[in-house]
Design a protein that fits this description.
- The protein is an alpha/beta fold and 352 residues long.
Length: 352
Amino acid sequence: MIQMADFIEIDFIEAGERGSGDAITLRHRREGYDSIYVIDGGYRDDGNTIVDHIRMYYGANSSIDHLVLSHPDSDHASGLVTVLEKMTVGCLWMNRPWMHVDQLMPMFERYQDRDRLTARLRRDFPKVAELESLANGKNITIQDAFQGDTIGEFTVLSPHKETYFELIVKSDKTPVPAEKRLAHLAKSISDAEWGEENLKGDTEGTSPENETSIVQFAEVCGKKIILTGDAGVGALTEAYQAAYGIGRPIGSPDWFQVPHHGSRRNVSTDVLNKLLGDILPEVHTPPKGKFAIISANRNDAEHPKKAVIRAMIHRGRSVFQTRGTLCVSSDNAPPRNWAQAIPLEYPRGQED
């Protein structure tokens, strides 16, 4: 029997119906053995899509080695409930604040009782608690994922455990008022020259929950890969610094997951210069194989932002949006006979 050469393939599945979610599956073959990962599960119904996708393309009897929840938002966590219910899982990777209640309690002045603080944290993060309950019921190992931990071939670059504690204390689960969302939708578009960027990561920023996102890096089959969840400038900066600190310099990644569905509140010019390289001096044709992938539903009126698409192309990336499932793969991956994905065009304008 001829053994197929090593390969990696990552599928970014279109999640949600209008609002966007993240749902990623990954298969890595090494020395004839397949490892399967799922990173985030989108909304509840997206879990069925993930299960069907794995069984169709990775094998009808496949099991999942690593199931990763990047952070506790429902558009990432809900579909993992279905995946846990329907598939065999080796290990669930997610951070549960109540598992660190002794370290957190001094940061909460109103809570000096372990049980009360634990109950409060479980109420604040109900999807994480639901996944924990399901995993425990099936005797699935649950592991933290903090800076320096390894998830198969991937290294966790962010969050650092102490940073995570600080973000949990800052967490505010109150939804954004409707009038603020509408005002955000009403922002206008203005023409901009090549290289001009209007990103908001430094000024507006993202939520503490998003900043707890597990940022992962791997160099596999000749590909450098960064998966970001909904990380913001703080988490991405920490990830960049950690990569050098642990001897895994990011360099110029081949496949970069654009955080938070292409929100301009999650990135800045400075952090993108660090992660992807400086803005190129002129319009150019992106080099083959340098991809920026945006998990954004085709019906999402909010995402991705034109400013973010521009920023990726400024740094030599072909930009793809999940209008259907996107597959990126190394050499030797099994053929899919899928249509070639079409990259997003360079927007001539960006949001004011």
